[in-house]
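Possible race condition, two jobs.
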Amino acid sequence: MGNDRDLDELKARLKRFCHRTLRSQVQEYIRYTERKAYTIPFTPTDDEQELYQAISNFLLREDTYAIPQRQRILTTLILRKLLASSSQAVAGTLQTMKERLVELLRSEGKQEEDKDDWLEELVAENEMEYDFIDEEDEEDTEHIKTQINKEKLLKEIEELDRYIILWARSIKIDSKTRALLTAIDTGFKEMSKMGAQQKALIFTESKRTQEYLKNFLESNGFAGKLVIFNGTNTDGDSKRIYEKWLEKNQGTNRVSGSKTADMRQALIDYFRNEAEIMIATESAAEGVNLQFCSLIINYDLPWNPQRIEQRIGRCHRYGQQHDVVVINFLNQRNDANKRVYELLKDKFNLFTGVLGASDEVLGTIESGVDFEKRILSIYQQCRTPEEIQVAFQQLQEELESQIKSKMEDTRKSLLEYFDEDVHSRFKLHLDNTKHHLDRFTKMFWSLTKVILEDHACFNDDKLQFELIKPIKNSETYSGTYQLISKDKDKQNSLYQVYRLSHPLGEYVLEQGKKVITPPKELVFDITNHPFKISVIEALKGKSGYLTLTKLVTHSYQREEYLLFNAVTDDGEVLDQEICEKLFNCSAIVKEPTTWSKTIEQKLKVDVERHVAATISQSLENNNRFFHEERERLEKWADDLILAAERELSDTKAKIKELKRRARLAVSTEEQHEIQKKIKEMERKQRRQRQQIFDIEDEIMEKRDKLIDDLEKQLVQKTEKEELFTIRWTVV
């Protein structure tokens, strides 16, 4: 499993390539729909409440044989959640527990905790969150063998049997199920108001509840309008939907070849195009896009806020055209249930607003199962409404403190500051980009006027020129040229488009590079410049000398630098930025009347220093780049090894799973088939072990070659050329 260090390492590696921007940070640019929450209250009947209380009291006992001691906390947690799901879900699970005790009774009076996979079977049987399995090892893992009391065991079996027969199965349709019809009606009315499709996504934490709801809704006006979605999808309806989908899409790229993936896609397509309701377990909350649906009904509400956000995120995502309605149920006779709902609604803001639960808030829950255990402890330990109130108040205060701390840490993090910087710059770039493009276009236009002065007539207002004399030895023709610009109104399809990549544009640039630039005096006019340039106005009335040098470095890549060096007659040195701004002003070119050899010599010394500093900076950058590349190569090598080791680990896990299935096999044929697969996987395991050594050899060879190539490329060569030296005056 991953940890915080792995996450930090991943962020560091990705930082150079991608940066995350949250929905909240681009909300003013992209339209996001809202969440609208509705609560459907229901009041259990006396029979239902008595059933709930009886089983609740049973779960409070710590000496029952029905729940293995080694898995008691998580098993109790699952049963508590099933107890809030449906009577059918509870009845089925109680039947499984009863059968386990019957088997125990046959074991000659000894209780042997040897079914390591009992919790896994319980989770799979109901298709709940598999997070529970990951947490199992944190409980006491010692196998406990104790003498049991057969009389007590028999009474426990009878007690479970009584719950199953007299209570759970006698409650055919419970109050919560009847309230589901109200929820669907409420949701569909909201869909009509918004003009959204009549689609409802119903989530449950129990596969048994899923089947029970399907039968109920089919008997209450939704026959032929339902589809169920779970981890196996082995029911007859799903198979028929899949077969029709496969026949329709055969020969297209929609068919991936993976039955599992294609089955899921077939069910989603059926929900989109034909069904009105999808009843889903947690499988539908993972990696599927259901944004065509705007109604989510949490028939069972997870205690884990991350799971809830994941559910809602299937529909409430970018591209959703309508507000998403989220409907939850509230048991009016269960104080703890009410407080759980308040906690999820008020502290995590899961059900309302534009963005739902923020990453910062959800980040306070490092383990969803641990959070659910906290809630379970309240259910298990608190007996009165007052005790429940105090316990949840304490939990709420702890959460508020954690959330506040998390929010502060997040605001201070480099990632958020960077994203905020991107956010603020994004708003400016639309204007600035146009500004820079216009400035560049003007420079290109000015150069064109100089180079083509004897060949064309220019119209500055329309950014057009008439090429009268064709250019010798070039692919250019006479006619009217239109400078490409962002102002489409000024462009005319009858004219030739003039741009940098046009042969005429390339000719202008090439000739501009060849222009001879002997020493001259330039008088820059800041007084009549249309815009204020403060640093140039400060030079008004001053004179000096300026040199422009072109520096080219050849190392990992070719880099070009234009280095300005300038000094006033008083000896004041001007920096690069001031020199660049100086050339934004118009100027008159004159023959120099005075020329100081002393200052010219000083400029040459300054140029050498500027060149040396630039080369040094380039070397430093290349050196840093080299180390970053070498480190990335090292990590790449580690990743290859890790990937191979994980494949080996996956194979080991599959072998373990096959051995578990072998223990549960009910026929010789099934046992034989599983053993064949085990043998194949063990052969694969041996190949993967050898493959790790082969990968290590390959990595060493490639890494050494890549490093050698990098070192050769980092040998730096430089070229220096003086472009011009001028005497300048600012007026």
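Job #2 (started ~2 s after job #1):
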Amino acid sequence: MFRKPWRFMEWLFRLRYGKSAEFVLGDVMEEYTIGGKSRWWVCRQLWSTYGPAPAALSIRKEKQEQMTWPIGNEIRYAARTLSRNPGFAALAIVTIALGVGGNAAIFSLLNAVALRPLPVPDSGQLVSVYQIFQGKRSRSVMGEESMFSVEEYRTYRDTNHVFTGIVAYSPFLEATLGGETPHEYLGTYGSCNYFDLLGEAPAIGRGFLPSDCAAAGSGAVVVLSHDLWRDRFSSDPDFAGKAVILNGTPFTVVGVAQPAFHGTEAAYSYFWVPFTAEPVLAARNGAKVYGNANMSWLSLIGKLKPGEAMAHVRADLAVIAARIDRQYPGRSTTLAIDTATFASLPEARGIVMGVGAVILTAVAMVLLIVCANLANLLLARAVGRQKEIAIRLAVGATRAQLVRQLITESLLVALVGGAVGCAASFAAFGAILRSIQSHLPREVPQFHLQTGPDWRVLAYSLAITIVTGMGFGLVPALRATKIDLQGASKRPRGFLRGGLVGAQVAVCMTLLIAAGLLLHALYDAQNVDPGFQMKDTLTVAFHLDGMNYETARATEFQRQLLEAAAALPGVDAVAQARVTPLSDNHVGYGGLTPSGSTQERNAEVNVVSPGYFSMLHLPIVRGREFRNGETNAAIVTESTARRWWGGADAIGQTIRVDSSPISQVVVVGVARDAQISHLGRSNDTYVYFTASPEDQSHLQLLVHSRLNQQAAIRRLVHRLDPNLALDIAPLEDNLKWWRTPVSIAGALAGSLGALALLIALLGIYGVAAFMAGRRVREIGIRMALGADAAAVQQLILRQSMLPVLIGAVLGIAGCAAVSKVLSGILFGLSAYDPLAFVGVPILLIGCAALASHLPARRASRIDPVHALRHE
């Protein structure tokens, strides 16, 4: 029957220990035979240990010393163990892939925007330089305060000892490219070493020469982006040397950029001009920008000399900053110097890193739920492996070796799941970006980001994968090996599993309430009543200030356009405004002094024409609207009137306006509070002024008509000025500026919340089923003594729902503590919205009760006779 003696020993061992013998005979035996011992010797020693001669345990120490656990063997054994449990392995891998993949995708986006160096040659040698002011200062700004003036740029360029060169540039230049179809594009002002220092030689023609930057107003040359050259000029290979019209001024095309180069900002730049062309190209008092030594409008990028340390760079530039500060007593400047990225600007970097931290925290919470859920699965699985672990301890393995082996299994699952998740996220990253961009308002510029993973993304993904594997594997491994050989059959207590379930529910509750707040805010934004009429109103935007329109010419153009638009069929009202309602364009003013006060006040202002309020059905609650020809009148909102004059009547009060041709204006009306500037806020300090001749080049047209007159209005403007770029859209489109952020955030939070809910419910169901399975014999005894099915269900539900309820309370408290973070995009919705804080807990607890009820119902149907025989 047995041709080899050890086959007989294997048969006896299986007969005695059943399935638990498979581990020893299939795996531990292999480890011994690798060490040179025969299978017969192993069988004989095992039989001596577990058979009728327990005294043979004295050989345990010897076998322990002979036994080795090389990492390769541990990995092979972990792979074999997982292959015997394909369901558990598949569930764990998919769960980890979702958690790690989501984290990797979000970090990839954050890395592409704020951490990855610019996509240019030698990007590791490029550093951005910005300044942060403290103390007494008065500074002009066109962009952000942390930028530099031309004079400051030249000082840093000529007196530093750490750079081979410094580039100055000013992004987001809006200019109209003339032609048969005038169109507005974003461009960049650059110093004349822009292309040379960045190592981006144009594909056609040349970059800028020193002669292009000889003096203010010189340099009427332009380098086009490859996309603009291809789409607008049909990839004409001989286009260099020809002229194009930018803001009504001829510029000579000297080059076409490389196809992959789009500038030093995430937003596409379609052309580049020397910064000396600013006084010519920008008609908004351009000489006061380029020639102003105290004007913030240029960003700086320096290229390090070989071997320069960042500490030396900071010390060298700090000396220059202190020298400049001496020209402005009371001012102190510190410099922000770091590797140049798309988000080097301190103001932008703060926003990007803040938003990124919030989103990363949200996806990390999902990963935390994944870890808790898998830890619970491993705890349940460890119960079935207690005999296996006892056998391994008996044959000489130490607890440390067993913990290491169990951790190896967890890490192997985590690495496979992490690899799958990262591969999926990297493959989908480009599609995610395109989807995000497609849902942004049309006014948002195109952006370019490097979507491929770099070492930062790979290191981050590997780190969170290892942390995940350790996170869900360590505690179950320690718990599973904390047994003695005589007590392997005892039922473990469930405090740890209950605690893990409570943690899952707490995190899930936080995510779901946040999603509920955002979705409620999105619903409100879709159905908002801003306090004025938006329907059937068109906004007609053009930029006369960028087309060198003088005051008289701008006034005449606006007059002719108003008359022609008002005469169109179906048009019942026209008006002008510098800022259209809810356009997210804001004009602030800090030099307003209301009568009865000596203190200057800050307010948001708008310049509008007569008929603006009646066309928008924005009520004037006291006083009247503007009249034709008025130049010294103002209308304030109700909140502004209360804030400035208290209970006194605002009509007839005056406002002194500094730096204005009209030094004092009279309040002729009080408008009802409305959500004019910010969606969800109607109590801002807001003042309307009448449009003066100097304002005509900045005004936009509003047309109210029940007929679609976009084509007719476009023909009117083209007839008045064929080179003027035009943007016509329904006024209701302005709501997209406000709906888009909350819709993206709501979709992300909703997806994460749904995923967290699914994982948490699986964990709750699994724990409830496990507890019911472990108490089969107890349930049989209870039912044999007279307990009915309802009592059994209540027993299981009570034990399952207790950690759920505790976790729900903790989750509500946690979300209440952090919900203020979302207040900026809730559009007036309370951060403690009752619908979210009551409805979401009811939903989650109801789903958890259902998940717990199914195992409880199954347990209540157990046959008592069968249960009493259950081992």
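The longest strand covers residues 163-177.
Logs attached separately.
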